[in-house]
Design goal:
Length: 91
């Protein structure tokens, strides 16, 4: 393989990695902790997202994942209102 082709491939891979790192770091604007009670247990989880709703939904889903097993439990817990929603600073 010619050196020029190897250099072009290496530059392309580095550019792709730089783009992935930059886009993943720049995408987070909100960070929330959401606490949920379900079936006599409670769980609090933190998530980040590009919007408030996205961050809150991700934290709520993560908290429910700790409390349930199976689709029915996940759906029911997902519809349960959170007892605490707290905005956190981005780290």
């Amino acid at each position: 393989m010619p050196k020029v082709l190897k250099l072009a491939i290496a530059l392309f891979v580095l550019a792709a990695l730089a783009y992935l790192i930059f886009s993943s770091l720049a995408a987070t604007h909100y960070r929330y902790e959401v606490c949920v009670r379900y079936a006599g247990h409670s769980s609090c989880r933190v998530a980040e997202g590009r919007t408030r709703a996205e961050a809150q939904r991700a934290a709520h889903d993560n908290a429910c994942a700790q409390l349930t097993s199976g689709v029915t439990g996940a759906v029911t817990c997902g519809q349960t209102p959170a007892y605490r929603v707290r905005a956190l600073p981005i780290q």
